[in-house]
Specification:
The complex is a heterodimer of chains A (278) and B (289). In chain A, 75% of the residues lie in helices and 0% in strands. With 278 residues, chain A is mostly helical. The chains are: A mainly alpha (278), B mainly alpha (289).
Amino acid sequence: MKTRSRPLKTRLQILGHYAVLCAIAVVCVFPFWWTLVTAISTEGNIFAFPPTFWPKAPSLENFVEVFNAIPIWSFFKNSVLIAVLTVFWKLLLCSLAAYPLARLKFRGRKLVFGLILATLVLPSEVNFLVNFITITQMSLVDTYTGVILPNVVTAVAILLLKQAFEEVPQDLIDAARVDGASEWVIFSRIMLPLITPWLATVGILTAVESWNEYIWPSIVMSKPDEFPLSVGVLYLRGTFGSSTRVIAAGTLITIVPTLLAFLFTQRFFMRGMDGAVK
Amino acid sequence: MKLAHRHTLQAWLFLAPALLLLAAFSFWPVGYGSVLAFTDYSLIRETRFVGLDNFRYIFNNEMFVSGLKNSLMFLLMVPFVQVGAITLAVLVNNRLPGIRLFRAAFYVPVVTTVSVVGIMWGFMFHEQGALNYVMMTLRLVNAPVGWLSNDSLALFAVMFVTLWRGLGWYMVMYLAALQSIPSDMQEAAMLDGASRWQRFWKITVPMLRPTIMLCSILSVLAALKAYQEVDVLTQGGPMNSTFTALYYAYDQGLKHLKLPRALAASFIVSLFCIGIALLCLRYLKPKHR
């Protein structure tokens, strides 16, 4: 009796398991679906009761409208530019900083490491007020340098890359040193190529972060033409207050790149987090 | 000694650019900001030291005081986020077909821009939006509710969106922790006849303790510093009911250019954060050495 009921019980458990998972997944994904339905429908009242959960007379009309209404293409290019520059400088500067922390013995190592760790605890959300003064005094308002500069060096990136450098076998470094290679050559010719997967991880995380950054670019940039997408999309709400469908279409254009990046590099995301915890 | 430190100069050269930027954009703002909070700094006048004036002003300002209360209200969210994230992590830590799809679904809100989140939930919370429809169909409410326009509900709506956005992030943290629990412990307990529930409370939870502590601190800090969702959903309204302390700082400093007041407000938030961080660090330290 007991042995016979067991498979049924496990099967029911699995079914229940899936039911709970689906319920939560619906809550997580539904707003995206709703936005999609709104964006590709061309007929019917958006806020009709009962609402339609399936697109009516689907077309891409609203997307075309977005391109006509706001310079979304240049928003897009601005976002790409900001993301590429941020990723480049972050990988360069943070790997430069991580290398000595991982592999060199030097005076003040503990102090430096402590200072970098301290920035994890400091409430960084509070920084933007003074950073705005700094950026103003450096005459970097309305420049992408101003948007990028404060985000280029982060403790998390340094810690991840430090861990990566620590995994490289010491023999390789010793052999290079015996051959008379300078630390710069060891770093750029031997170490960097060996940690490419980690650089990719940090790069992808940074790209998505930078793409999604909203508050700081909206503080630094004031000319609408130069907005990144994350800021520009809110501009739609101002100009198209009444046309919800166009706003929804603009919203989707904004998230598609992140979603694609996320779906194709899901493993990196989970692993990146994994590394950060330990 | 000399040999051990032979790389000093090179090491500092490698570190210099990064340290310079950290100094300029992380340490300087904290230090300089704390000083400016006690002055009447503005771009047009000479700066004078004004003691506690800014603090006196903000504590007599209803917007800041209710903002601080709202920031503390956000703390109510912490247990929900943590219990929710642990539950999710346990649920997706199974080898079931399609489980990666679910993991992705739960993580997607995390990688979405806050401005987009604001727009999407604006649709959801609309009086004739999907949420009201679902709730009316389920007979949870009789008439459409103005989630973002009702001053006693708006704060909870904003809090919910923060929860929606944060859950997946903590889930991944817990998932990583769960996967590092050696499976032989679970198997041994199973052989001893421990039930699922017993195994969860006697093995999983104790093993997760450090992660629970870490995530709880992070989410307490995040709750105190909430303001982005406020900006994109309600801009502090209706009737200032969703003003948080840091949103007050943001609003005063960058929209009204009252920088010292804004800095005083963020100084107070920072004090809360540092206090909590220190408190937690004491309890986080491993007990045995």
